[in-house]
């Protein structure tokens, strides 16, 4: 692309105004907007390893972010893994320039931790099932493929929504997630080292070449964080009159009127990240049941899949029982009624017989 003298003119001509998708939302900082005990959960997440990635909203012109996303393309290796992402920026002289975004730069921009591969924990499907059942999944979850967010208690349903809506670019199928993405919840819930960097990087790259790239921007907030980090290093000063990037906060869905059969408390591993002087978490700590209650799984039923066409057949006149079939068979046989003889013909026959 040819260099332009004015960044504002270049952005207005060559880059369309992109619409942000309904994903990659921001976790709001105002705890008064959350009902109890969700306010304590939000405070724990803000103080967690993923706190910056959940709450960061940099001040940056929207046109710079739109330009980066609109001109982005991914470079894949032989295993179909993304090695790097290239996108267009503007240098201090107002000229356009292609820059490279690597996984390392992405991780640095989002303040994600990098662990020794030997320390990383990769939870199994069975461990994820145990976690959701411990949270209070009802009825009892048997297989991870059967997981549905709405079967969790309010507290942990919102916990799942925060991760999927704020850290992912998904805009549909929001009642479940991949095993890899559910590992993020596992890491925060049990305070263990999962590969946050690789999981979020893979999700970020998977949405780069979507079909609506020319009109919509996926992972808009992460793109803003990455682009903002780049311009901070280059010293580029944007035109202050340009409209800034706007971010959509995640909302709280209506809470259930009836309490859940069982709802796990926020683990001590999460609460310990928050200072004692935090009012919301301090009030929640006062409600904790000590010793920590455990769920009695032996008294609950599990989710069972009934194969299609294998259900019990209803007998004794049921919809598919033998009585109904008998009625069908009887009604299918057509009988011809006897013809009624006219009255005049009957009288004539009677006179003939007497004669």
Describe this structure in words.
The structure is a single chain. The chain has 355 residues and is mostly helical. 38% of the residues lie in helices and 7% in strands. It has helices spanning 7-14, 38-46, 51-55, 62-70, 103-109, 125-135, 154-167, 179-190, 196-206, 220-234, 268-271, 279-285, 322-332, 343-354, and strands spanning 19-20, 73-76, 82-90, 96-102, 216-217. The protein is globular. The N and C termini lie far apart (121 Å). The model is unreliable at 1-13 and 305-332 (pLDDT under 50).
What's the SSE blueprint?
Blueprint: H1 7-14, E1 19-20, H2 38-46, H3 51-55, H4 62-70, E2 73-76, E3 82-90, E4 96-102, H5 103-109, H6 125-135, H7 154-167, H8 179-190, H9 196-206, E5 216-217, H10 220-234, H11 268-271, H12 279-285, H13 322-332, H14 343-354
Parallel strand pairs: 1-5
Antiparallel strand pairs: 2-3, 3-4
Keywords:
mainly alpha, 14 helices
Write a brief caption for the model.
With 355 residues, the chain is mainly α. It has one domain (7-296).
Give the number of DSSP strands. 5
Give the tally of structural domains.
1
The N- to C-terminal Cα distance equals: 121 Å
Low-confidence stretches: 1-13, 305-332
Query: Largest beta sheet, briefly?
Result: 3 strands, antiparallel
Q: How would you spell out the order of helices and strands?
A: HEHHHEEEHHHHHEHHHHH
Give the spatial strand order of the biggest sheet: 2-3-4
Coarse shape: globular
Beta fraction: 5-15%
The secondary-structure class comes to mainly alpha
The Rg value, from CA coordinates, equals 32 Å
Helix content: 25-40%
The average pLDDT value, as a whole number, equals 83
Number of helices: 14
């Amino acid at each position: 692309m040819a260099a332009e003298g004015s960044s504002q003119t270049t952005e207005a001509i060559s880059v369309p105004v992109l619409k942000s998708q309904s994903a990659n939302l921001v976790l709001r900082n105002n705890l008064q907007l959350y009902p109890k005990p969700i306010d304590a959960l939000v405070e724990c997440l803000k103080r967690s390893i993923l706190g910056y990635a959940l709450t960061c909203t940099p001040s940056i012109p929207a046109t710079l972010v739109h330009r980066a996303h609109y001109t982005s393309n991914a470079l894949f290796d032989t295993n179909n893994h993304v090695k790097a992402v290239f996108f267009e920026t503007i240098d201090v002289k107002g000229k356009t320039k292609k820059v490279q975004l690597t996984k390392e730069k992405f991780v640095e921009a989002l303040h994600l931790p990098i662990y020794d591969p030997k320390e990383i924990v990769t939870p199994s499907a069975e461990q994820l099932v145990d976690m959701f059942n411990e949270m209070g999944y009802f009825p009892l979850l048997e297989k991870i493929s059967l997981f549905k967010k709405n079967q969790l208690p309010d507290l942990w349903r919102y916990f799942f929504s925060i991760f999927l809506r704020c850290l992912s670019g998904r805009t549909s199928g929001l009642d479940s997630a991949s095993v890899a993405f559910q590992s993020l919840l596992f890491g925060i819930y049990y305070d263990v080292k999962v590969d946050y960097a690789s999981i979020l990087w893979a999700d970020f790259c998977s949405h780069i070449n979507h079909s609506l790239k020319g009109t919509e921007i996926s992972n808009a907030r992460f793109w803003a964080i990455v682009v903002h980090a780049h311009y901070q290093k280059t010293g580029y000063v944007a035109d202050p009159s340009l409209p800034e990037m706007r971010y959509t906060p995640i909302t709280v869905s209506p809470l259930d009127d009836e309490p859940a059969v069982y709802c796990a408390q926020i683990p001590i591993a999460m609460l310990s990240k928050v200072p004692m002087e935090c009012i919301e978490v301090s009030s929640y700590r006062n409600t904790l049941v000590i010793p920590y209650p455990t769920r009695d799984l032996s008294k609950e039923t599990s989710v069972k899949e009934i194969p299609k066409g294998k259900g019990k057949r209803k007998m004794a006149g049921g919809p598919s029982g033998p009585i109904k079939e008998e009625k069908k068979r009887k009604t299918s046989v057509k009988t011809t009624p006897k013809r009624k003889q006219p009255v005049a013909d009957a009288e004539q026959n009677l006179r003939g017989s007497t004669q």
